[in-house]
Amino acid sequence: MWRRVTSVSHLTFAHKSTVNKNACTFKCWESFTTEIPRKEKTTYQRAKTPFITFVLGGPGSGKGTQCMKIVENFGFTHLSAGELLRREIASNSADGIMILNTIKEGKIVPSELTIKLIQKEMELSDNYKFLIDGFPRSEDNRKAFEQIFGAEPDVVLFFDCPEDEMVKRVLNRNQGRVDDNIDTIKKRLKVFTALNLPVVNHYLEKGKLYKINGVGTVDEIYKQVHPVFSSFHFEQVRV
Ligand SMILES: Nc1ncnc2c1ncn2[C@@H]1O[C@H](COP(=O)(O)OP(=O)(O)OP(=O)(O)O)[C@@H](O)[C@H]1O
Ligand SMILES: Nc1ccn([C@@H]2O[C@H](COP(=O)(O)O)[C@@H](O)[C@H]2O)c(=O)n1
Ligand SMILES: [Mg+2]
Would the ipTM clear 0.95, i.e. be above it? Predict the structure, then answer.
């Protein structure tokens, strides 16, 4: 069972670049000193430590689709930032109208609000493996996350997909999303290039980025994704 802690000052996160060790309150994430093995056959030993994966890519690049397969195979908890924001709109919360207008314009919701929703879901979960899909969308998102959580992601997946393919997929999605129309898609693509690509480059420079070719069938793409996680030796739900 998780044990709620009120202070995390005794916890040690894996990354030397941790920004603020006292900033977040999580369930029992105990001390560890092991560096993350990359592509090595080493048993993963951080069962009570959060394993955070950021899932990046343009609108319609396939983030949500591939997250479902990772959940199925590796037992992650999938937190889609966009989905949490849409849920907030649906719940008629005080911020609902502002979020709706921001999404319609393809712009970015204030970081603190999105992070609050992500943090709440993580605290409610008994899992320690999280896929945070569609976050960080901007350098401001990224820096605010590091400040509030006092930690960096373990893995960053980036689904690289040409714009024409992304537009085609979004227009065919048919889920009734207010932003799945050509005007908003054009705006989202501009925001993606201006604000999200700098985040991608940041993690590339830090050596944390796994760039995935987002063109092909869902299974072809997943074949590139699977080895990223199998190298960490989690207990697999299904092979
Ligand atoms: N490899 C693929 N080939 C064809 N269609 C795909 C592929 N992957 C996903 N799709 C479809 O494209 C649409 C967009 O995929 P998905 O919702 O996973 O993208 P996303 O990156 O989460 O987008 P958004 O950022 O807008 O939430 C969906 O209808 C999905 O079924
Ligand atoms: N970090 C984020 C993530 C999303 N948004 C807003 O939600 C829209 C939909 O997001 P999807 O990931 O589901 O495509 C997105 O266009 C943004 O308006 C956000 O503000 N911050
Ligand atoms: Mg999505």
Answer: yes
Residues 104 and 106: their CA atoms lie apart, in Å, by 5
> Contact, 103 vs 178, CB < 8 A?
yes
57 is in an annotated binding site: no
How many structural domains compose the chain? 1
Give domain status of residue 224, yes or no. yes
Classify residue 237: in a domain, yes or no.
no
CA–CA separation, 68 vs 178, rounded Å? 22
3 appears as a binding residue in the annotation: no
Residue 85 belongs to a domain with what CATH number?
Answer: 3.40.50.300
Q: Could you tell me which of 78, 202, 214 has the C-alpha nearest to residue 152?
A: 202
Contact in structure between 118 and 155 (CB atoms under 8 Å) = no
Indicate the pTM of the whole model. Answer: 0.85
Q: Which among 65, 80, 85, 111 is the best mutation to test ligand 2's pocket, defined by most ligand atoms within 8 Å of the CB?
A: 85
| Nearest alpha-carbon partner for 38 in 123, 156, 128 | 156
Residue 44 scores a pLDDT above 70: no
